[in-house]
Amino acid sequence: MRKLVVSTWMSLDGIFDAETMGQWFNPYDSVSRQTYIRDGILGSDAILFGRKTFEMLAPYWSAQKNNEMGVAAKLNSVDKYVVSATLQKAEWENSTIIKDNLAAAITQLKQQPGNEIQVEGSAILVRSLAEAGLVDEYRFLVHPVIVGKGKRFFQDGLFQGLELIDTKTLDHGVLVLYYRPVKSK
């Protein structure tokens, strides 16, 4: 059975807004961070996206043909699933649209052989997955800056206990925090 792993990059105050990455993400670039990101992508058997994240990444990565950054070939060849009630076509190679019955579809994907289904960003989708009890692990790449405004990864209303299972310190004070949801008793 495969694990469903949520992988996201954020500021210390939970901002993951792509429009402000120049403030909180770009200044903390390092070889150790690049390696962490690359290893995570290369270690996935499938990638799950919400519609907005898919539409943001698909045009760029589908056009990459020389294995840019060491991950383009993987991103273009791996099975990709996009959850959307409105998307009509997913033209990125090996992409499938999941339109309804999210819990059943994801449960079926998790039951297939392999190691890991990775969710990239996709905060709205993650909330639905968390509420359905489908997330097995969270991996937060936390940058040491407080942005103060922007899109937060977790919106009001979601409550989920987490157990810290590992940490990793990267260059420039960037942390990787690994959490597992605490199952209700």
TrEMBL record:
Residues 2-175 form the Bacterial bifunctional deaminase-reductase C-terminal domain. InterPro entries: DHFR-like_dom_sf, RibDG_C, Riboflavin_Biosynth_HTPR. GO terms for molecular function: 5-amino-6-(5-phosphoribosylamino)uracil reductase activity. It comes from the Bacteria. Pfam families: RibD_C (PF01872). GO terms for biological process: riboflavin biosynthetic process. This is Dihydrofolate reductase.
